[in-house]
Amino acid sequence: MTTDIIEKIEGWVFLVSRSQNLGFTTIVAPDFMCDARVSSLLAFVAGGKITEARKAIYRQIHNSAVGNLTLVFRVLETTYEDIGIEGNGKIKDSFGREIPFIEGVVFKGKLTEVKVSEDIFAKIHNDIKQPYQTFWEWSYPKATIPSQSQSFEKPSESECFELIIQEPYTDSPKIDDSSQKIWKLSYQINLDHEIYDFDISDQGDFLAVRFDDIWQTLAIVPFDATNREDIKYNDKYKLEKKHQTFPSKLINKIPVVGGKILDFRECNQSPISISQNDYIATEIVKTNSNYIKIYDHNCKEKYSILIENINHNIITSLSFINKDLIICGCKDGSIKLFNCKTQENIANQNHWSNKQITSIAISSDNKTFASSDSEGNIYFWEIVDLTIYEKRKIQNAHKIKNGMKINSLAFNPDGKILASVGEDDYKIKLWNLSGEEVGILEEENSSDVGNDTINTIVFSSDGKLLASGDNRGYIKIWDFTNKKLLPFDKTTQHDSAVTSLAFIPDTQILISGSKDKTIKFWKQR
Fold first, then answer.
1. What CA–CA distance (Å, rounded) separates 55 from 63?
2. Model confidence over 412-471: pLDDT tens digits?
3. CA pair distance 421, 454, nearest whole angstrom
4. I want to staple 207 with a disulfide (CB 3.0 to 4.6 A). Which of 221, 257, 345, 471 is the partner?
5. Which residues are CB-contacts of 417 (< 8 A; sequence separation ≥ 6)?
């Protein structure tokens, strides 16, 4: 390896941080990385604990799409006054967490002799202030702000920072057999109620959780996975909103207006969804009406959409299509499309069976979606000019009998494959958009003995993994490319049914929620 001793060097400023509205992301990156659309690499590679005074972190990136790179950066906390935004004291996000700034410089090539000083970092810090002020106002992710090249002079020996050298990051497939690594428990959060459903924010920094409780409780659970390694959670940041619709002593049959009887178990089990701008939607049942309530990530109500003036049409599936449109499936077999801002019901469709909608999955094009019902049928739909059109159906996709149903649907990231699971067996079925079965995922040499009903399935954001969770609390993760089941540590799995799964975006960290009142984070080791 050559030694580069230089008096002046060309570099590009970068910044990775978060704001009051958005999670960790690359805010400022070199213009050549923005042009190549690889700026997100910096958020993945740069991170760590707050650096001490007169210390900086040094890390090389090998074989990236823009060549070899050398990063020198520090992690610090700063104040509203210093950055020039409204507020007092250390900058915090909307959950009250102090916001670290990962700021530094990118050099081209593998540089082994890099020297930085307080003056250099003062210049870097000054350069990122205006971009961060812009970023602070964003309510949804936008393009990374490009930085231009500039010259950095070599400081004197007495001024030099001590460099903390991290292992180089290689941006190419490693030659190892990841199929032999075991998925193990990385972190666990204990909550107060059984978890019915959760959704993860686009930035992967909080969960919106709907509990299976008599209070119709919505909880926002923020967590920190800055460097995609260490999961951090502080209970004081958890936000809850309880909807005390009925007296807590009345749990089973609740008499309502008009003499109708409402089975309360259907009301407290409501799905939940997070939009691109971190709004949360869930169903709330009142004495004689059903609503979709829209909240921000501080549990503050933003919109309220009246669904029905009758109580039997419970929402069974719900999802944001974009930041304005919500689609939901109902117990009566209807599918409804709403604009949350205008609170209008834009379009309606029905399954021909008029049976309960059990799941809805949205494709990556935000136009195609699939739905399933309690008779084992799957439908493909398309939204054109805010109208829902049926494209095709798969009749008896799962052989449903004795009150069983299809439990979950999931599109892979490119929207070409739909996965489905039902209570008829313990396999994952795969379908193309023409409605043809193109595969089945099942454990080799297994029988139905020891298996249980799969409740939920989810793809990783790169489409390489597919995870499932069942009624016993067991999780299975598949290498979807090779259709191979990966090793999983069963000794730490859930004590009760897995009800929700999500991969943190752009990672291979899996989150699971269960009726055992825990949320668990899993990582391959």
1. 27
2. 999 999 999 988 777 899 999 988 988 888 876 554 445 678 999 999 999 999 999 999
3. 6
4. 221
5. 411, 430, 431, 432, 438
